[in-house]
Amino acid sequence: MADPRTLLLSGLTAVALTVGAAAPTPAAAEGQLHFYNWSDYIAEDTIPGFEAKTGIDVTYDVYDSNEVLEAKLLAGSTGYDLVVPTGIFMERQVKAGVFRPLDTSQIPNLEHLNPKLMGYLAELDPGNAHAAIYMWGTTGLGLNVDMVRERLGEDVALDSYDLLLDPEKVSKLADCGVHVLDAPTELIPIALNYLGLDPNTERAEDFEAVAALLMPIRPHITKFHSSEYVNALANGDICLALGWSGDVLQAADRAAEADNGVTVTYVIPKEGTLMWFDTLVIPADAPNPDAAHAMINYLLEPEVSAAISNYVAYANANDAAAPFMDEAILNDPRIYPDDEVLARLFPDRASSQAVDRMRTRLWNRFKTGI
Q1: Domain shared by 41 and 123, yes or no
Q2: Is the domain of 217 the same as that of 146?
Q3: Which domain range does residue 72 map to?
């Protein structure tokens, strides 16, 4: 079987990687590191391993939405040394001057990051001056297979956004629970693509078409939240979620470990879906930037990247990590999509202020149901 990583890279457009010359040994760091990361997004031994290797104490806090992180960053004086925004948020935050450029001499392990994936990131962060890729993945559907089939029939197609975006179908799932990410930058591009429109459109009439699509499904959505769906799926409390690939796969693992009779699966819908990158960046006012550089370098060690992917079921961009990864992770097309699936994915892109305003108005209208 061809390496899924090779299949992945053949579907991406190469852009030159500029990370600067790496010194053989990163600068020494000491003291304390304040790390702010997504929930359920690191291996159990990552922080202890870093502390043991460097002697740096880590305070580790978590959030569950880009909006929460962005509000803190734009307010300033966060006290954090290292944060993990998604690519499109990182792009506009770079433009706002909230991050310091990376000192690549302190991060020799940057050499392991795939040039084509870093090339994509260079479209958001010119010259790869501020960010390195932490993990990447897709947004799709998390399903309680038995509950969905019980309500929609054994022959229902499970590989379609119809389950969520067709009012007739989702209305039959409302009684068993439907969660949606509280993230307009996720659902709105997906809805545009589902309608056959450009996910990066700036046309007001396209956003009106999305509103016409979404408003009829609003009564059938139980909750908007960007982390609770993981346990809700695993426990059998909901039957459908719009969620992130690794989160849903974690829910599937938790259900299997609990042996609670719940079968959860993650689906990349046939209509296509969003592909995104989460990045490692250092706030401009970081109290300990040397410690942040040391942590980035540690996270990019092949064995460490592999251990995180093995634990959280998200893809990493580390070419040297593959030999250390579980075969079940490396060969899972839901994590490392093959060419056929990759062709249906579209990357997230930053938008203009005008689009941001239209999207925000649409999202508020959708959530309130007014």
Answers
A1: yes
A2: yes
A3: 4-131+281-337
pTM score, whole prediction: 0.86
What pLDDT, on a 0 to 100 scale, did the predictor assign at position 103? 98
Kindly report, residue by residue over 48-102, the tens digit of the pLDDT. 999 999 999 999 999 999 999 999 999 988 999 999 999 999 999 999 999 999 9
Q: How far apart are CA 21 and CA 252, in angstroms?
A: 42
Phi-psi region of 157 (alpha: psi -120 to 50; beta: other; left: phi over 0): beta
pLDDT at site 120: 85
Look-up of token digits 């991406």: 12
- What is the pLDDT at residue 28? 56
Say yes or no: 291 and 239 in one domain.
no
The pair of three-digit structure tokens given for residue 281, joined into one six-digit string: 């960046």
14 with 118, same domain: the answer is: yes
Angle 61-83-288 from CA coordinates, rounded to 5°: 90
Please say whether the beta carbons of 56 and 31 come within 8 A: yes
Instruction: Specify whether the CB–CB gap between 307 and 107 falls below 8 A.
Output: no
192, part of any domain: yes
Cβ neighbors of 10 (< 8 A, separation 6 or more) are 339
Cβ atoms 128, 99 nearer than 8 A: no
User: Which residues are CB-neighbours of 116 under 8 A, at least 6 positions away?
Assistant: 9, 12, 13, 14, 15
Q: Within this chain, do residues 285 and 308 fall inside the same structural domain, yes or no? A: yes
Same domain? For 116 and 188 the reply is no
CATH of the domain at 127: 3.40.190.10
111 shares its domain with 10: yes
Rounded-to-integer distance, Cα 84 and Cα 37, Å? 6
Say yes or no: 361 and 228 in one domain: yes
Under a CB-based contact definition with an 8 Å cutoff, are residues 19 and 118 in contact? Answer: yes
Tokens of 123: 């479209």
Please compute Rg for the chain using Cα positions: 20
